[in-house]
Structures
1.
Amino acid sequence: MLKTVRNLEGELADYNLTLDKMRTDTRVEDVNMMLDHIKYQNNKQKAVMDNLFIERKNNEEKVVELERQLQE
């Protein structure tokens, strides 16, 4: 239920932002440019997070292997 509430809050924030942009006569092109920039930043952050996850996984595997060697 908490996840649903958070999703709805995010959706509401999007609608409020859209209304705000309409009230201030922001051009559609400007909104699209902001959207493209945000998508680019999100993709960049996703790549960083993916790399960190892979690095962590590799390190965990090394630790398991080293622990196994120590046990021998």
2.
Amino acid sequence: MVIIINKVFKRFFKIAVIIFLLTPTSNILSQQTPQEIFIKAEKELENNNYEEAVNLFTAFIKINPDSADAYFYRGNAFFALNKYKPAKDDYLKAVGMDYYNSELYYNLGRVNVELKAISDALSNFKRAIEIDPDYKEAASDLADLYFAINEYAYAEDYYSLVFDIEPKNEKNLSMLGKTNLRLKFYDESINYYNKAIEINPEKADYYYGLGVSYYFLKDSVNSIVFLNKTISLNKNDAFAYYYLAKVYDELSMYDDAISNFDKAIEIGHFELSDAMLRRDRGIVYIKKNNFELALKDFDFALNLNSADTLSYLYRGIVYKNLEMDTLALADFKKVIEYDTSNAAAFLNIGVINQKWGNYDDALNYLKKAVTINPKDTMALFELGSAYFNAQKYMDAINYFDKAIKVNPNFKQIYLKRGSAYYNLGFYRQAVSDWENAIKFDPGIYNDIKFLLNDAKSKSGS
């Protein structure tokens, strides 16, 4: 470990006149002045002979216990020996002597990081920067520490300070890219990753950062380009395959999505949950109507993580599609055991109860879904349908109205609201709704023409 020696200034101290006696094994030291001992200790420290440096500084401190320099340098030697507690004690001793030295506070901060005294370390690094505003090592370590504790806004501030001091620092540019990505400042992230690539065009991580930033910006073309570039430089980057799979999923290129999920699962990564990978691949299998493979993935995911609410939710959807409603209901209820704010689970429980004719239960669950997400078209439509099936037509119309405000292009709402109007004897409104439904889907005309003509006839009277 390289220890920073104070090159800003050295204190002058008086040469002791008295001859001092040490232990019998230190007779040579007894023939030297305190200044000579200090100089020798300094040389041993510079030559990385840390144990000898500690011994010499200790000998000097016995003669001159008020030397802040000696405590500072002995602290450096202890630090190099990974003896963090005595290093900290020495640094604090120097601080107590009003030792105005940015390197002292910087090294004290590093020791506190090792001792996991994070709050103290943050304070020490900041003090070092107050003394020397251009102290880029202190700013960099402070930024790294903030990043490590997920305080990304503060991390960005200090990485930016390093950038102002040294704009072509590759490591700092990459961390600015990563920090801005965490802060969801994707354009800034792209800017810094591109600067890092100018310095090192063969670093896979930088292209990965670009690919992910473009993914969140919904720029699928650039995302695919840079994620593939990442893989060309590092064929074992599981995260790159994972995000490629996500891009292809959003493009409805499901086979490509599954292929990339397969690769991410094969490679694996300690930060990529295998349960999450299987679950996300299972969701793509649902979109391909491959319910058998979807079930295998969700079962696997839940075996790894029995509290994964999304796996329960989507497995429930698979069971519902397979008309295995009892199993579906059990999974949806499992979701709300873990997450009482999951609108989709309440919606699906309501739909199953409505299918079974349990309208009171259906209404309760669907109302909960709408309360959680008042702009969910399907929840509003299903709640309206439950009221319709319970023959509460005005309540049904109320929720159909709300659903149409959210999504005016949903033909089923016009069909169902038209039927509610028809049952209430509001024939003109029924005709209007049914004709709107036909505009969205002319193919339904034959299915409703009898009722439509009857409503027209009655509306005329």
